[in-house]
Amino acid sequence: MVVTGGATRQDSVARALLALPADVDVVLVHDAARPLVPSELVSAVVAEVRRGHEAVIPALPVTDTIKQVDAQDDVVGTPDRSVLRAVQTPQGFDRSVLQAAHAAADVDSATDDAALVERQGVSVRVILGHEEAFKVTRPIDLVLAEAVLAKRRASRAIG
User: Fold this and answer.
1) 7 pLDDT band (50/70/90 cuts)?
2) Rounded to whole angstroms, how far apart are CA atoms 97 and 114?
3) Angle at alpha carbon of residue 152, lines to 149 and 135, rounded to 5°
4) CA–CA dist 70, 82 (Å, integer)
5) Which residues of 132-154 are buried (b: 16+ CB within 10 A; e: fewer)?
6) Where do the structural domains in the chain lie, given as residue ranges?
7) What is the tens place of the pLDDT at every residue in 15-25?
């Protein structure tokens, strides 16, 4: 099934939710900008939702120091990176939870679906993401993607 996307990411997900068959109870939301997500990560997200977590996101620990800046680009704070995670997709949800979050959402009010669910008071479970689930958005990312694909081809040839 193909669903025509909306003007925004949030609108596209809302349209997809409306088009789902009635028997679908677990929904994954994935960014097309992450084309190399390993199937094991997808399976892990689904498994956590099926274990009873209503919302599940893969994420990696932040390794860079993060600075919070003001409108003039002056540093106003340095968050403790030990409690920060870089979130990836696919994000997994109990269908009814995600539908309720979208129904209650303001237009374009979140950068991801987990944020919409959080606003409804639903706990979001974080699982370990994967290094190969990075976004391909810059020219340097294409170089990295080529390296990942070469590594996968080599491991298949050996295995």
Assistant:
1) confident
2) 10
3) 45
4) 22
5) bbbebeeeeeeeeeeebeeeeee
6) 9-133
7) 999 999 999 99
- CA pair distance 42, 94, nearest whole angstrom: 15
Phi and psi at 22, nearest 5°, equal -60, -30
- 9-133: CATH superfamily: Spore Coat Polysaccharide Biosynthesis Protein SpsA; Chain A (3.90.550.10)
3-state secondary structure of 7: coil
Q: How far apart are the first and last CA of the chain?
A: 35
Rounded to whole angstroms, the Cα distance separating 130 from 156 reads 19
What whole-number distance in Å separates Cα of residue 128 and Cα of residue 124? 13
User: CA-CA distance, 55 to 110, in Å (whole number)?
Assistant: 15
3-state secondary structure of 76: strand
What pLDDT, on the 0 to 100 scale, is given for residue 74? 98
The token duo for 95 is 């269908």
